[in-house]
Write a structure and sequence with these properties.
The chain has 334 residues and is α/β, with parallel strands linked by helices. It is 38% helix and 12% strand. The protein has a single domain, classed as TIM Barrel, CATH 3.20.20.300. The chain has 12 helices and 12 strands. The radius of gyration is 19 Å and the shape is globular.
Length: 334
């Protein structure tokens, strides 16, 4: 199975003629869904089927569905609590598994391959864009709870994506709108932020999404464009052999690399397996028309690990005792 290296977004609740054409381009290997793409269960089911049948390309369908502030599908889906809520009681291990399973189960039941989760950043109390999206401020607790969370995801047929490597939690700037710079030393980052990533890579983390943050004492490029972070640290030092997704290349944190073509080429050259170009159709078309995205066979093969595993449909899911119990537990937390 070949999966191409570009992930795009959609404008609305059904495919436009332009989007049908974009999906058929040989560079297109993925689609990410947002809140604007969701109206109802029936509509989402039809949209997912349309994406699959419009193109002969193998397409990964993804979403950011963490819970709390970042949950793209609301009506008819369980309202998931922010991940930080899992540390507020004595049964956080069980709750973390249930949260991961429920999130993944409801997404997989709609035929969507994966959600970009879990967040492995440390909550230092300074980053509003991370905040309660992080499990905790203790890297060991993050490692432990995220491991349970990923077990839940896997039991629902979903691969995991740890973000935002090597850690977005220590900067105040939001990389969607600014260019964050982290001036900490390598040693400081290794003793804290790297810990959850290193631990989960050892237990089989499927994918990583690097941060659009410049770690000024280490490299002059944001991590997602840095051969040092992606090849030297991730691939060599941490022995990571999973997928590397870029964060959205239209974010301000990526702007230091130039235009959209330059950003996409730089991310691939640094070591990303798939690049995301979202919320800017002109930018996506520019990448398709101009970027030279050279992909290796091993990179394409890695992407196949993100394909959702066989799982029950929504009506079957809603009949299970496990779903009902998880919904009750998450409602109590939320």
């Amino acid at each position: 199975m070949h999966i191409a290296p570009l992930m795009l977004d959609l404008n609305g609740i059904e495919l436009s003629a332009e989007e049908q054409e974009l999906l058929q381009h040989p560079l297109t290997g993925g689609v990410i869904l947002f809140s604007r793409n969701y109206e109802s269960i029936e509509q989402l089911d039809q949209l997912v089927k349309s994406i699959r049948t419009t193109t002969k390309n193998n397409i990964l369908i993804s979403v950011d569905h963490e819970g709390g502030r970042v949950q793209r599908f609301r009506t008819e889906f369980t309202e998931l609590p922010a991940i930080a809520k899992l540390c507020e009681n004595d049964h956080s291990e069980k709750k973390s598994y249930q949260h991961g399973w429920l999130m993944a189960a409801e997404v997989r039941a709609m035929g969507i391959d994966f959600s970009f989760a879990p967040v492995l950043d440390i909550n230092y109390g300074v980053s509003e864009v991370i905040g309660d999206r992080a499990f905790n401020q203790d890297p060991e607790i993050i490692s432990h709870l995220a491991s349970e969370y990923i077990k839940g995801m896997r039991d629902a047929g979903m691969a995991s994506t740890g973000k935002h490597f090597p850690g977005h939690g220590a900067v105040t700037e939001d990389s969607h709108h600014e260019i964050p710079k982290d001036s900490r030393s390598r040693e400081e980052i290794w003793q804290a932020d790297i810990v959850p990533f290193a631990a989960l890579i050892k237990s089989g983390l499927d994918a990583v999404m690097p941060a659009h943050v410049i770690y000024t004492e280490i490299d002059d490029k944001p991590a997602g464009f840095s051969p040092y972070w992606l090849q030297q640290v991730l691939r060599k030092e941490l022995s990571f052999d999973g997928v590397i997704f870029s964060d959205d290349l239209t974010m301000e944190g990526a702007s230091v690399m130039g235009g959209y073509t330059e950003r996409a080429e730089a991310a691939m050259q640094a070591g990303c397996d798939m690049v995301l170009v979202c919320n800017n159709r002109a930018g996506a078309i520019e990448v398709i028309d101009k970027a030279k995205l050279e992909q290796t066979d091993s990179s394409s093969k890695r992407l196949t690990r993100m394909v959702g595993q066989s799982f029950m449909n929504r009506s079957a899911l809603l009949d299970t005792k496990q779903w009902a119990e998880a919904v009750d537990e998450m409602a109590a937390l939320a």
